UniProtKB/TrEMBL annotation, chain A:
Residues 40-175, 224-288 form the Exoribonuclease phosphorolytic domain. Keywords: Cytoplasm, Exosome, Nucleus, RNA-binding, rRNA processing. GO terms for cellular component: cytoplasmic exosome (RNase complex); nuclear exosome (RNase complex); nucleolus. This is Ribosomal RNA-processing protein 43. Belongs to the RNase PH family. One of its GO terms (biological process) is U5 snRNA 3'-end processing. One of its GO terms (molecular function) is mRNA 3'-UTR AU-rich region binding.
From TrEMBL, chain B:
Keywords: Exosome, Nucleus, rRNA processing. Its main location: nucleus. This is Exoribonuclease phosphorolytic domain-containing protein. It is found in: Nucleus. PANTHER family: EXOSOME COMPLEX COMPONENT (PTHR11953), EXOSOME COMPLEX COMPONENT RRP46 (PTHR11953:SF1). One of its GO terms (molecular function) is RNA binding. SUPFAM superfamilies: Ribonuclease PH domain 2-like, Ribosomal protein S5 domain 2-like.
Length: 315, 247
């Protein structure tokens, strides 16, 4: 049917009337409607410090997909089971303007899924050593509220959200704080309390506790996990699909790898097509290639923001 | 059921290792499947995998809110309820995984503008919950006689810090493990006279979390297929038993 109409229809009409045939013809030629080869990801940018009010922030764009990450630090009392650890609390919001399906109000399924995926990747990659967030043993620790806002949803949300979260965490500076005689957490060298915490039972927070306050300028991330979503379509592998391609794909496979070569996650949420071992292997290989691109971009951005430990050179 | 111990594990499998719960590394927990425990649902099943129990109810295909319906196919709605409390991000991700898995096997074009709703209620939780929920959903869909291209089964694997792959871990083993992977496979369409079900080559759904090497992951996929085959044999036997009770 497609062959009959394609000679007589304008390309734009063909795209609207026969979207599947339109797309299939592109893929058969090894190209995509936006001009990319099948294995090429969209141009990616990382802008650190996009929000001045946040303790750390990053704006990541992958093609049109835009995700903003912001971190706000607060002081908490460590939970009894983990007296030496702070917390990272992730929350994700798909803003009402990001796509036609998004609605304001309650968290959508997509937002919850993204939250779980990003939290899992950060946890299983050991990105944040929670003990680095400790201020005083059992008394005070940082909790980093990591908020992710999807501003424009054009496919590959998980890839962009994880990258934004990672960039914001890697650029996070922990303020130097002291625990004063009153038992309050105060900025180092300041007598008036900008950030105050009193112990629950009114006890003083002791600066000479087992760990003591150890000033850490930057939160050092333990690894750099990045993700790549691949679409399976007619037996072909398509890297970094946009929103239309995701809807047309027979199955999606998201692979998370880190800079130590570890495979942190492989996620395939069902779909019409099954992925055999060869398809999974090519997804993993594509994710490793993409990791080198993205990690180098991230290192350059962190170097430009003078975060210590990043030379700006590739790995 | 007899087939809970995998035959012919790969090299260096540590099959002889005995776990804290007395199983060998490649031994599944005993399974139970009760078909049709609920009277009001169109189909239902209770799937027990050791200490993990999930009750699944299927409603539909039936009409749905016009905002959700698709003019060309049936849509799938999944409700995943934890044992207690409200559904959080983990449950919503499980819902999405089960939904896309069901969408992969449902012959959706037969019932346009309807919805198939699968409600999954966790009754008891002891590891491998996603796989248990997938198996329960599959059994309940069969019980509801919703047209499916294939049925599916799932299995869970855990990689211990010593690098051993454990089949069907319980909650303690999952907690201690470096990485946990859940794999779902579609049963291959079979001829009426087939003795044992076979599984399709490709992975229908997969969710792994935790650091793995490529080799470990591919080994986990192979082992997951072998374990899922055991589950499929059991599911088939349980279905035959429930059907023969009807005659």
């Amino acid at each position: 049917m497609g062959a009959l109409v394609q000679d007589t229809l304008e390309p734009d009409a063909f795209r609207k009337l026969y979207p599947d045939q339109y797309y299939a013809r592109f893929v058969a030629e090894g190209l995509r409607p936006d001009g990319r080869p099948l294995l090429q990801a969209r141009p990616t940018t990382i802008a650190l410090g996009a929000v001045s009010a946040a303790d750390s922030s990053a704006l990541v764009k992958i093609g049109n997909t835009t995700v903003m990450a912001g971190i706000k630090l607060e002081v908490m009392v460590p939970v009894d089971e983990r007296p030496q650890e702070g917390q990272v609390a992730v929350s994700v919001e798909l803003t009402a303007l990001c796509s036609p399906d998004a609605r304001p109000g309650r968290f959508s399924e997509a937002a919850h899924c993204l939250n779980e995926q990003v939290s899992t990747a950060l946890r299983s990659g050991g990105v944040v050593n929670l003990q680095n967030l400790l201020i005083a043993h059992g008394r005070a620790a940082w909790v980093a509220y990591l908020d992710l806002y999807v501003l424009d949803a054009d496919g590959g949300l998980y890839d962009a959200a994880l990258l934004a979260a990672l960039a914001a965490l890697a650029a996070l500076r922990l303020p130097h704080v002291d625990v004063d005689d009153e038992g309050k957490v105060v900025p180092a060298g300041a007598s008036d309390a900008a950030m105050v915490l009193e112990d629950a039972d009114g006890q003083r927070l002791s600066a000479a506790g087992p760990a003591g306050p150890q000033p850490i300028a930057h939160l050092r991330v333990g690894s750099l996990p990045t993700a790549l979503t691949c679409a399976l379509y007619n037996g072909q592998l398509i890297v970094d699909p946009d929103r239309d391609e995701e809807a047309r794909a027979h199955a999606l496979v998201a692979v998370t790898v880190d800079d130590r070569g570890r495979l942190l996650g492989v996620e395939k949420q069902g779909g019409r097509a099954a992925a055999d071992a060869a398809a999974l292997q090519s997804c993993i290989a594509a994710a490793r290639v993409r990791h080198r691109e993205v990690a180098s971009l991230l290192r350059q951005a962190l170097h430009a923001a003078t975060v210590p430990g990043y030379s700006g050179a590739d790995s | 059921m007899s087939c809970t111990e995998l035959a012919g594990p790969g090299p260096g499998s540590g099959k002889e290792l005995l776990r804290a719960n007395g199983r060998s590394a490649h031994q599944l927990r005993s399974m139970q499947c009760e078909r049709g425990p609920l009277q009001r649902a169109d189909g239902s099943a209770r799937w027990c995998q050791g200490g993990s129990v999930v009750l699944a109810a299927v409603h539909g295909p039936r009409g749905t809110a016009s905002r959700k319906e698709d003019p060309e196919r049936a849509v799938v709605e999944i409700v995943f309820r934890p044992r207690s409390g409200l559904a959080g991000p983990a449950e919503r991700l499980a819902e999405a995984t089960v939904r896309r898995t069901v969408e992969g096997v449902l012959i959706a074009a037969l019932h346009p503008r309807t919805a198939v709703t699968v409600v999954l209620q966790v009754l008891s939780e002891d590891g491998g919950l996603l796989a248990c929920a997938l198996c329960a959903a599959s059994a309940a869909l069969v019980d509801a006689a919703v047209p499916l291209a294939r049925t599916f089964v799932a299995a869970t694997l855990a990689k211990t810090s010593e690098g051993v792959l454990l089949v069907d871990p319980d909650a303690a083993e999952e907690e201690a493990a470096d990485a946990v992977a859940t794999l779902a496979f579609a049963a291959r369409g079979e001829a009426p006279g087939d003795v044992a079900p076979t599984l399709a080559d490709g992975v229908l759904a997969c969710r792994s979390a935790g650091p793995l090497s490529d080799g470990d992951f591919l080994a986990a996929v192979d082992l997951g297929r072998a374990a899922a085959r055991c589950v499929a044999v059991f599911a088939r036997a349980s279905l035959e038993k429930s059907l023969s009770a009807l005659v």
